[in-house]
Amino acid sequence: MPKLTIQELKKIKERAQKGIALREGKAKVKITVHMGTCGIAAGARECLETLLEELAQTDRTDIIVTTAGCMGMCSSEPNITVEMEGQPPVIYQHMDSNKTRQVFRRHVLEGEIQTDFALARGK
Amino acid sequence: MSNYRLHLMLCSGTACQASGSKRVKKALEEELKKRGLDKEIVIVETGCNGFCAQGPVMVVQPEGIFYQKLTPEDIPLLVEEHFLKGRPVKRLFYKKPAPAETIPYLKEISFFSEQMLIVLKNRGLIDPENIDEYIARDGYMAAAKALLEMAPEEIIDEIKRSGLRGRGGAGFPTGRKWEFARSAPGDIKYIICNADEGDPGAFMDRSVLEGDPHSVLEGMIIAAKAIGANKGFIYCRAEYPLALKRVDIAISQAREYGLLGEDILESGFDFDIEIYQGAGAFVCGEETALIMSIEGKRGNPRPRPPYPAQKGLWGSPTVINNVETLANVPKIILNGGDWFASIGTEKSKGTKVFALTGDVNNIGLVEVPMGTSLRTIIFDIGGGIPKKRKFKAVQLGGPSGGCIPEKYLDTPVDYESITELGAIMGSGGMIVMDDRTCMVDMARFFLRFIQEESCGKCTPCREGTRRMLEILDRITEGKGEPGDIELLEKLSYMIKDTALCGLGQTGPNPVLSTLRHFREEYEAHIYEKRCPARVCKALIRFEVNEEICKRCGICYKKCPAGAIEWEKKQPARINKEKCIRCMTCIINCPADAIF
Predict the structure, then answer these.
(1) Burial B170-206 (b: 16+ CB within 10 A, else e)
(2) What is the pTM of this model?
(3) Are B59 and B44 in contact (CB under 8 A)?
(4) CB contact under 8 A, A20 and B126
(5) Residue B222, min C-alpha distance to chain A (Å)
(6) Position B540 pLDDT exceeds 80
(7) Does residue B551 carry a pLDDT above 70?
């Protein structure tokens, strides 16, 4: 491999930062897929995979996707909670792959809450 | 890379590997694969996390959940419950001893939250075998700045302004050392990283090299530019296989990127680093002996001056800096000397890494600002003394250092305050001792170490420490005589004044500091033939104090020789004819009733 210049060093830094940003606790958006047994049975796994695919296509390093247990409203599963910095969390219900994609692109990236799928606004 | 939703930061420092982190890793890999999670969850092997006592440890990011004492058997449950279903497993959380409480988040555990990380800023956050992750956290940006934008004098000025002092023990101002080497005449100069950490109980340098090797390389590049050196050595003992392996990987990665070698970052500056493996002789941590060893000779010290900065390796001006000192350098260049000088006390700037060990709950690696009190380190971060026993003393600075008793626990940790108390900052070994430690025996342990490691070149150290050891042996065997204490003192001062190198000059310190703070223990050994801590076997009578005896019968059950006579609700008695003086009863007695 040829010798680095300072520009190339900075490029490596930028690229590598994306890979480790998650560890530094600087996330501004947290998307939680509720993965209790009920959620998984209702298809939460597909929603999670969709989110990860979508996230990989963006340049954003401040979004984290995580899982949590059942919220207690098993009939509304799969549930996804979107928490954006400075805003109350929004819980979506009866999600599938397509709805998840729409929520990610329109709500997470553009800030437009998708009221059609929303179950509630949390505190 | 970015489509991993969880990063499992598994500690793979020496301590966690010894307690099984490799097996945990294998179990994790298998389980993640089985569940089809291996594309969305990544395992990252990090350097030492610091909380060695709880190993193997793992931090799950982004939540920052801390798991401890993992075994391969825990993994299937952990993967299903936490990584798939999002329910962290409480059973594997950290448990605070008192008041009892389980704490899931790393940042809320007092062991971590009370620390301030500069040297260890990448601890547990990067894979030490991946240069890109180091670069991601500002790695090599300081080297770029120093090589492309700063003149050597400016670098030295910045270091001088920071107030950085050598972290190897003596605390010599780093900037001044560099200045001497810079102004010394000669075309060929060298920079050496002293990684010959040999104090019993110290592991700071090893952890830095294992966890963040590039930070040391970067510090060396900057130092090289400052003094005008084109060649550097890392002198590391062969007993540190993992550190050596990681430094080796780091050097080859840096060479591949052209961060070591010719014309680094098109700056026109050439610099390369070679590892030199030491054979583990304690004296080779002394800088002149270390130079001899690299030159291929027997590691013996020589008188100074001339100092290595004037006449060092192969007669050329040489700067020798400790691992931790060098790891501080990139941060100072990047953030400025004033920033560094704002941390710490008036004369001791920045932070200090300590290896906290001995009779303390949270054994591990600790970094705190200079000026933090010993009490904070031992009781807040260290979690206090286990088994409800009492704190007795803390030993600082290894065999060259001394001990500090309880009444000085509020002393701020800086070079001057510690020296005033008869100990030294040293490289950062901090051994906590509870009330079951005999100070005479402790002094004997360190003196034996010094005696064995003495290179034999000068008489005061070779003969003097041997005579001192003989006296201490006698005292602990119950053959101490009046006048022994005075003789020990006389010998100590004589050795301090006349020994050739730092090893001999500081060798009597453990004896002097225990005499200073615990003289009455020596007197009890000599005049009363009694060991107050009940450690020196020859001075134990193996009798039961019937007033204190709880009549519990534990000694009766534990005694391997059947020498204890006991009946319910009656005090125990020891039959001296059967007793084999094995100490089992003393160790197990809950009331400390046997003397």
Answers:
(1) bbebbbebbbbbbebeeeebbbbbbbbbbbeebbbbb
(2) 0.91
(3) no
(4) yes
(5) 16
(6) yes
(7) yes
